[in-house]
Amino acid sequence: MTVLPQRRIGRFSVSSIGLGAMPFSMGGNVKPSRDQAIATVHAALDAGVTLVDTADIYAPRWDEMGHNERIVAEALSTWEGDRSSVVVATKGGITRRSAEADFGRDGSLSYLREAALASRERLGVDAIDLYYWHRPDRHRLYAESIEALAQLQREGIIVEIGISNANVEELEVALEVVGAGGLAAVQNEFSPRFNHTSYAELQWCTDHDVAFLPWSPLGGTGGGAVAVGERFPVIAEVAEAHGVSPQRVTLAWELGLSESVIPIPGASRPASIRDSAAASSLTLLDAERERISAAVLSR
To answer: Which of 64, 230, 248, 296 is the one with CA 20 to 30 A from 109?
Structure first.
């Protein structure tokens, strides 16, 4: 197994590039077979990736909650390497009802406990390594749901607390509730295509020693990731200079923004995650990083 450069998420040391497992179950046009999804996880782990990101709502249908978690659990149980080195993150707080488009929010302690216990069982672990509140529930005080996560941590259901899709004001509230060192990670959308509302959160995480995990770091499974070099010519130019893919350059640029950044690119093929993992060893020149930042960052 390859050893990649490491970064911190709370008490855990993880590879600087993670694997986003969502494409196994939703998003994009074509879903991989179960065998291909498992092979993709195995390829990630063999390449040195030690962080796998999933969520309970990642599923093809509303009545298949936990679909993605089950695939991740099966992949980990059938991998021949050392499972103890792998950190699995999952999320709760979004509901799915009888209609395919009926995504609701529930940040109550009772719902989050129920969701976390179900995720823990599907993942086959004693405690969830990193558990995110997936999206804010606007029907209740933000601090109330953060306290719910803290309670799950006290009960030993989860190890580290994360929040997703949060703004700076909400991050400040979370930190006030859990205290210094209590918030391990923030997962927000961030990419060359989308950073106008998330660069401030990246900077906040850097200032407060909290891991910042960009989701859709290449621009999304709907075609943004594939076309990142076409949309941003400077990335394509830097990629050509290094003889690597635009996707690899994009991830390397993100890693260079802060030691807190841990991108979690989605993948549905072994070749894709191998290329992404290689970004951790790609060194861009300062001038190249500055050119990319000047071209893509919305400040």
So the answer is: 64
